[in-house]
Amino acid sequence: MGRTIDDLWELVFVIATIVFVIVQVALVYTIIRYRARKGDDSEPVQVHGNTRLEILWTIIPVVILAAIAFPVVKGIFDVRAIAEGEDVLQVQVTGHQWWWEFEYVDLADETGRTLVTANELVIPEDTEVNLTMTSADVIHSFWVPVLAGKRDVVPNRITNLTIIADDPTPPDEPHPGQCAEYCGLAHADMRFKVHVRTDADFDAWVDQQLTPATIPTEGAAAAGYETFNITCVACHNATVAGPEGAEDIGPVNTVEVDGVVFTSSLAPNLGHFGDRITFGAGTFDNTAEHLAEWLENPASIKPMRPDLNDIPGGRILGMPSFNLSDEEIANLIELLEGWK
Ligand code: CUA
């Protein structure tokens, strides 16, 4: 509800500016008009205890503050309201150290697998989106400055935020988002993007996301798939088109909070990695060059501590380096960029 907040800011700014100008003009006028003049030692007129003045400069601020308080209090309730109804897009958000998981709980393929993506939220234009949020570890805060104020994302608790985006974003210029609650080493790199699409483009995107990734059978991508199945699947899932239909090749974990089941993975779902314009939680442009650097040693370009292995729940603090060869890295890039 960015507009509610923006409108309030403008109202307060206008009132504050008027008060500022009046006070400054009065101050400057008083300084000049009533300054001490040479040869005039007489005492100025005293107004202490002037009841009429005292009442006046008590009432004026009270009226101004009331004029601000009513819309602000109403705004607080408006911003906290949870969007309801059939037209509302329901997205469950899980904050992780240090990335974002988005699950579209009402959008599933014929096997019942919900649409799960990471770090790039895609929403249709002019549609209420209810974000139901929790955290897998510590407190984060979901913040897309253009769309809404911040809302804390807390473990074992659910918080909600409603967002509406008026216009589609250009494909390479999504709205930037950022974790706004300090959450450890890579807090500053716990970013994300919000793409806004027309209804038709959004529907096409949903179809694409619900289509399992193809298993490459030849070339570098096939070799990359082998590496993926040995190393990446320890944490990352991808839904692929297996011989018997859609299958998950990595772990799929869930967490239940207040009766709501969230898909809460160990690492971002990579089944449609090639569709994203960034990686590393919205931090790096999704190019072969950046990806090569990342796959060689992720912690060298994003501050993480994957070597700490005493975190509850088997989580690790970021992606470790697997000492992959240049060829393995090139093959993995071929695979991942092909998974649109
Ligand atoms: Cu998550 Cu800061």
- The outline comes out as elongated
Beta-sheet strand percentage?
15-25%
What's the total count of β strands? Answer: 16
Helix content: 25-40%
Mean pLDDT rating: 92
What class would the helix/strand composition place it in? alpha+beta
**Uncertain segments of ≥5 residues (pLDDT<50)?**
none
Give a written overview of the molecule.
With 340 residues, the chain is of the alpha+beta class. Helices cover 32% and strands 23% of the residues. It contains 6 helices and 16 strands. The strands form 5 sheets. Strands 3-2-1-5-8 form a 5-stranded mixed sheet. Strands 4-10-9-6-7 form a 5-stranded mixed sheet. Strands 11-12 form a two-stranded antiparallel ribbon. Strand 15 and strand 16 (284-285) form a beta hairpin. Helix 1 (2-33) runs antiparallel to helix 2 (51-80) and helix 5 crosses helix 6. The protein is elongated. The protein binds dinuclear copper ion. Dinuclear copper ion is lined by residues 95, 98, 140, 179, 181-183, 187, 190.
